[in-house]
Amino acid sequence: MADLREIQHMIHPSFETVLAYDYEVLPSKIHDTDIKLLSKCGYALFECTSPAGQLMELERTADFDVQAFVVYQVRRTGDPPPDYISSMITTMDIPLFGYSKFRELRKYLGGIFPNIEDNRPRAMLQILRNSYLPEGYRQVVLAEIERAIRRH
Amino acid sequence: MAKKGKKAKSTGWYERQEAARSSALGAASTSKPRLFLTYSYLHADEAIVAALQQELSKFFQVAGPATMGKPDDIRKGQARIVDAIKSSDLLIAVLPGDTASTSVMAELAFAKASGKPVAIVSKKVPKLARTLGDRFFRSVNDLEDVLHKSGPSALISPT
């Protein structure tokens, strides 16, 4: 929970953040309330270091046209997704980011929000810079995206 | 579209076909150009993609997520995608709109940088994709119409 609170405060203040834990509901209403909250958001950030039922919510993001991001902790910066991140998540075609320090995550999120609303190409570049891409492919892709942004 | 004074890169397929046609005095070539078809797993309607793939396979040898299956490992999956794009003559991306996935955008950028023609099917083309694509179609039907009228060269020939 401490991590989630820390991450919540990394999001640019122009966004209203919603943390499901902050809503006190009957145990029988947890699922429905959670899905309702998700459906009201434009973006969703999933901290997947500890599995806690995120897969079900991740699957629903496309139904609600919610753009999802997955972050998780790694031992060293730049490590590929560790084994505890299920391949159900890594192959879901959602931006993934592994962080070993909170300041890395803050920088990552700071490059996405609020750019994703004001300057989407710039946000896309930030996401790709931090996504796991094979070497060689990575340099070519980033150079072309930067060219595209200049042309834009 | 290539800028004035800047030569557009070619995959060579169009030139090979043109040369074959002229040297064979009109004999039809049996080889199909290679196409990389991509889409967002999360946002695409699998039924539409399957139907499109079937239609495209009349004109192209189709590769991409639809034929390669979902990879069980991100590293292996991406390496396979890189190889498939490199050996393609053309890339077609079906984009849902503003929420285009980052992996599809990376594939578009890689194809563009490799000199492959890029066609995008989207009702609302994301801003960045507008500068990465060469040809744009509002729907799968529009794309199929063009293919039926003009054949694959309509997508592969330089813009």
Name some characteristics of this structure:
heterodimer, A: 152 residues, mainly alpha, Rossmann fold, 3 strands, globular, B: 159 residues, alpha/beta, five-stranded parallel sheet, 8 helices
Explained architecture:
The complex is a heterodimer of chains A (about 150) and B (about 160). Chain A is mainly alpha-helical and about 150 residues long. Chain A has one domain (about 1-150): Rossmann fold (3-Layer(aba) Sandwich). Helices cover about 45% and strands about 10% of the residues of chain A. Chain A contains eight helices and three strands; from the N terminus they run H-H-E-H-E-H-E-H-H-H-H. In chain A, strands 1-2-3 form a three-stranded parallel β-sheet, sandwiched between helices. Chain B has one domain (about 30-155): Rossmann fold (3-Layer(aba) Sandwich). Chain B has eight helices and five strands; from the N terminus they run H-E-H-E-H-H-E-H-E-H-E-H-H. Chain B has helices at about 15-25, 45-55, 65-70, 75-85, 100-115, 125-130, 140-150, 155; strands at about 35-40, 60-65, 90-95, 120, 135. Chain B has a five-stranded parallel β-sheet with strand order 2-1-3-4-5, with helices on both faces. In chain B, helix 5 (about 100-115) links the parallel strand 3 and strand 4. The interface between A and B is medium-sized, with 35 and 33 residues.
Q: Which structural category fits the helices and strands of chain B? A: alpha/beta
CATH architecture descriptor of chain A: 3-Layer(aba) Sandwich
Reading the helices and strands of chain B in chain order gives HEHEHHEHEHEHH
Helical content of chain A (DSSP H or I, runs of 4+): 40-55%
Largest sheet, spatial ordering of strands of chain B = 2-1-3-4-5
The figure for the number of domains of chain A is 1
